[in-house]
Amino acid sequence: MNQRIGYARVSTDDQHLDLQRDALTQAGCSVIYEEAASGKNATRPELEQCRKALRAGDTLVVWRLDRLGRSLPDLVQIVADLEQQGVGFESLAEKIETSSAAGKLIFHVFAALAEFERGLIRERTQAGLAAARARGRTGGRKPKLDAKQIRQIKVLLRDPNTSVAEVARDYGVSRTTIYKYCGVVRPSEFIEGTT
C-alpha cells in the first residue's frame, strides 16, 4: 500500500511544528517525521529515518520546499534521489508534486536553476582569483621567509662553520625550508649527520 509520509522541520527548539503537522495531517500523511534542526546543519537524523522508511510508490510530503533542502542544489539532489527510488515528492505551499508531468517539469526547471547557480558561483570565484592575481596577490600560504631573511640566511651560510640546522632553528623553520628558499646544498650535513 502506497503511503504519504510527511517531514516537518523547524530551525530551533523555540519554534513550533503545529502548523506543519496540521497541514501534513490534512494532506493525508499517515506518518510524520519531525525535527528541530537548522537547515544549514548537514546532519538531520529524522530526515534520514524518513528517507529509509520510504518505499517505491510512496510520496514524501513537506509543508514548504525550504523545510527539506538546505539549499536549492541540496533540494534538487534529495528529490532526484527520491525519483530514482520510485518515490514521489510533494510540497504543499508551492503546490509542486513530482508524480505528474507538470510537477516533474517544474522540478526540472529548479534543477536547471540550481546548475545555473553553481556555474555562476564558479565564474565569480574564477573572476575574483584573476582580479587578485592582476593586483599581485596569489593564493596559498604566506611564504615562511621574506626576501630580507633569505638574504641574511645566505650571508650566514657562507661561513662553513654555520650549520643549516642552527640557522633553521634560529629562524623557526625547517632545514627543508632553508634549502628551498636559499638554494643551499650541503651534502656533507646529510652524510655526517650534523643536522
Automatic annotation (TrEMBL):
Q: Where is the Resolvase/invertase-type recombinase catalytic domain?
A: 3-136
Q: Name one Pfam family in it.
A: Resolvase
Which biological process annotations from GO are given for this protein? DNA integration
Q: Which UniProt keywords apply?
A: DNA integration, DNA invertase, DNA recombination, DNA-binding, Plasmid
Q: What is this protein called?
A: Putative recombinase
Would I find Metal-binding among this entry's keywords? Answer: no
InterPro entries for the chain: Homeodomain-like_sf, Recombinase_CS, Resolv_N, Resolvase-like_N_sf, Resolvase_HTH_dom, SSR_resolvase
| Record's keyword annotation contains DNA-binding | yes
The cross-references to PANTHER family, in alphabetical order and at most eight, read:
DNA-INVERTASE FROM LAMBDOID PROPHAGE, SERINE RECOMBINASE PINE-RELATED
Listed GO MF terms: DNA binding; DNA strand exchange activity
Cited SUPFAM superfamilies: Homeodomain-like, Resolvase-like
In the record, the note on similarity to other proteins reads: Belongs to the site-specific recombinase resolvase family.
Catalytic residues per the record? Answer: S11
